[in-house]
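protien #1 (seq + structre)
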Amino acid sequence: MDARLARLIQRLDERSPVGIARRSRMSEAARLVRRRLKALAVAQEAVAAIEFEVGHVLLRLVGEGLSRNEAFELAGITRAHGRRYVHLAGAASPRLLDASSTDPAAAARATAQSGHLEPDGTHPGAAHEGKP
């Protein structure tokens, strides 16, 4: 009996102007939530892309002979953030992560093995003819 009475009350509520207005407010709120979630996803993707780019640049600095800690300090970021960015960039090129933070030569070898080339077509850290 209680279930049938609850269903009758629900049907009356759905047909009443108050019930219609309530559903309209709920639909609008749900639409707003969906839009905000889409915007959040776009923003998170942008942040991830920037973090990857920062990590890639940090790895290039390491490839130029700096230690990771020196690269982090030069960039003005904490070691924790620097390690996160390097990890994100290195996930695409795992060999870059193998280099020790205290062995810049190993990092330069790993960067050179990654196939990354400078704009002039040379490997990062390679000696340039006629240039100091």
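ok now protien #2
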Amino acid sequence: MSLEDDLKHYYKGIRKHLFCSRKSQTDFMAEARRLVADFLENQPDATFDDIVINVGKPEELAETFLNTLPDKTEVERFRKVRRRQRRLAVALLTLAIIVLVGVIVYISWVRRATVISEGTVTIIRQETDAPSSMAASSKN
């Protein structure tokens, strides 16, 4: 992986651990990018591991940023919202799986219950004199 790809993953990790408003997240991410840029400016040959060691792991950096927020209840509120969203996603996924299994069971049951048979029916008609008798009666 290139340093650029590693940094994208690093920034995603930071954002994932930021339980705050979108504006605060944007501000914190800008600060994280500045910290990394400053480090790389002073250490141009640094590796990604050097960045993590000196700037911090994503979850540690996010926690440090969250500790600077004046309103600590905002962090808890956003954690609860994210937890609720995760639970809702799991519940919806579980429901979708249950419905899918139900449809598969129903289709297999209907297939087993359906009987297709093939047969030949022969109809034999006896010729009658009805057309000639009708012609005779119409002449009268």
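The two ends are 106 Å apart (CA to CA).
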